Amino acid sequence: VEDGGAPLSAQLRPMASAVRDALGECGLVQQRPIAIGVMDGLSHPMGTCLAYFDCDEEAIRLTSPDSYRAILDPDTPYARLPEAVLTKALLTHEMAHALVIQTAGERQIDVVDQEYIASAMELHLMEPRHRATILESAPMEAPPGEPLIDIWIYGFAPRWFAVNAWRHFQEPENGCALIGRIVAGEESFSKASRPELR
Description:
By secondary structure, the protein is mainly alpha-helical. It contains eight helices and three strands. The protein has a three-stranded mixed β-sheet, with helices on one face. The longest helix has 22 residues, at 83-104. The N and C termini lie far apart (42 Å).
């Protein structure tokens, strides 16, 4: 963890270890060290993302929690989460990306599959009362469905994508077993590999 010696390191190290271990229960296993850097402003070089995984450097870049309130629209569900909860959610999402890449090895995992796993695990590892804040922001009455697991929906309505992904992940036939099949290259939500979803 690189944060200029700030006290956040003491919080991030055990949090990162706990997240890594939880993701390991879904077969996402760390193979190599992953650096975590805390940035004073927006961590992503483009857009307004609060965190991202730099696959070339194998490093997670997190925006400092001190900056959350200045960056986030107060009407967004993330702004209603406690800082530590939001930090863990961001860390979970980006560590899922990192561990999918490391676990897959030479296999290329499609971006929609990456975002499905990261979004589902982000919500899965939240406490129910905090997860409810996100679920309430994107109410869905219809059963979770694969047609909504689409990279365009992720781009234009990421919260709807995430809520649908988590609900789909919760289905008995899916869960960690589905993540294992995706990482093994046996299944994908990519329209290129799923003609019936085109």
